[in-house]
Design brief:
Shape: globular
CATH class of the domain at 4-181 and 235-264 and 304-316: Alpha Beta
Largest sheet: 7 strands, parallel
CATH superfamily of the domain at 4-181 and 235-264 and 304-316: NAD(P)-binding Rossmann-like Domain
Strand order of the largest sheet: 3-2-1-4-5-6-11
Radius of gyration: 19 Å
Structural class: alpha/beta
Order of helices and strands: EHEHEHEHHEHEEHEEEHEEHEHH
CATH architecture of the domain at 4-181 and 235-264 and 304-316: 3-Layer(aba) Sandwich
Number of helices: 11
Strand content: 15-25%
Bound molecules: uridine-5'-diphosphate-4-deoxy-4-fluoro-alpha-D-galactose
Length: 336
């Protein structure tokens, strides 16, 4: 029997790519999104990629009546919860907003699940929960030391899941701690396209490449890394999306709770990313060296072995694939 997955935040960057991978793995998928950080045409584009109509409901995870109506309409087997705010800097300015959307929103989803007798959930977490590295690579048992309200909101949700399972063994969950998602779908029909000035490195470089922004500011070149710039574990968004498919299948097939890093295990510097993007777009990209950004860590990357051993998860795409697919996406968007 075909199984149905509800994606909260399914119209967003990671959610939309996960939609495509779930469909191609044979799942039925229902999207819920308030479209606050999604393109209005993403649903049409998902229909184009998958060559099938898309089931999507516009609404907010803060609206419990809305959530109950979605569960009443569809035979949902599991939920993948993406719907959340994700800008670290903004969370410092607006901790209440982050608590409300990320924590209250998630508890609303869990209540709607409980009321509908759905007990399988994959939760979108982040490597930021680890904070300042005590050792690298980060393993899943590294201590959690959230620095920002954003990171704290993810730790709070992870804790809630553990407490819920302790209270009722019918719950099974997969907590996926993402490293740095980058790149776009091969079709160049979906990808990341922030309206405002991007906070993150790849979307910023993409806007320099399209000419929308004049130059990249490299936040510090005196870190304790090979070239002095910050090192991160960038993971192609399609690899990340496939990790969700494997996680939800594991929950449904084996009722097995898990907490996993989703990364590649390889760190790349800001200059590595810039050079790779220059190769992708075929031109030199302007940059200047600026001061360090408050709160940045010099270097972090995943130990990906637990996800590999447990799920068989392995990222197959490298930094050049991420930059090439990003450039295909943004250049096609600007020319359409
Ligand atoms: N950087 C620049 N210039 C920019 C933007 C970023 O030099 O304009 C540098 C940063 O200093 C850092 C690297 O590029 O060294 C990556 O920065 P990002 O902002 O792209 O990513 P972060 O690692 O800071 O954080 C991201 C997300 C978090 C998430 C975390 C998970 O923003 O939400 O990855 O690893 F939690």
């Amino acid at each position: 029997m075909t199984r149905t997955i509800l994606l909260t935040g399914g119209a967003g960057y990671i959610g939309s790519h996960t939609y495509v991978e779930l469909k191609s793995a044979g799942f039925d998928v229902v999207i819920v999104d308030n479209f606050s950080n999604a393109r209005a045409d993403v649903i049409d584009r998902l229909a184009q990629i998958t060559d099938a109509p898309v089931t999507a409901h516009k609404g907010d995870v803060l609206d419990r009546t809305f959530l109950a109506s979605v569960f009443a309409r569809h035979p949902i087997d599991a939920v993948i919860h993406f719907a959340a705010k994700k800008a670290v800097g903004e969370s410092v300015e607006k901790p209440l907003d982050y608590f409300e959307t990320n924590c209250t929103g998630f508890s609303n989803v869990l209540m709607a699940m409980r009321d509908a007798n759905v007990f399988n959930v994959v939760f979108s977490s982040t490597a930021t929960v680890y904070g300042e590295p005590q050792s690298l690579p980060y393993t899943e048992d590294h201590r959690l030391a959230p620095v920002s309200p954003y990171a704290q909101s993810k730790v709070t949700c992870e804790t809630l899941l553990r407490q819920l399972k302790d209270s009722d063994p019918r719950w099974t969950y997969g907590i996926l701690r993402y490293f740095n998602p980058a790149g776009a779908h091969d079709s160049a029909l979906i990808g990341e396209d922030p309206n405002d000035i991007p906070n993150n490195l790849m979307p910023y470089i993409a806007k320099v490449a399209t000419g929308e922004l004049a130059q990249l500011t490299v936040f510090g070149d005196d870190y304790d890394t090979p070239d002095g710039t910050g090192v991160r574990d960038y993971i192609h968004v399609v690899d990340l999306a496939r990790g969700h498919v494997q996680s939800v299948a594991k929950l449904l097939d084996e009722q097995d709770t898990h907490v996993l890093n989703l990364g590649t295990g390889t760190g790349y510097s800001v200059f590595d990313m810039l050079r790779s993007y220059e190769r992708a777009c075929g031109k030199a990209l302007a940059y200047q060296i600026g001061p360090r950004r408050a709160g940045d860590i010099d270097c972090f990357y995943a130990d990906p072995t637990t996800a590999r051993d447990y799920l068989g998860f392995q990222a197959t795409r490298d930094l050049d694939d991420m930059c090439r697919s990003s450039w295909n996406w943004v250049s096609r968007l600007r020319n359409s």
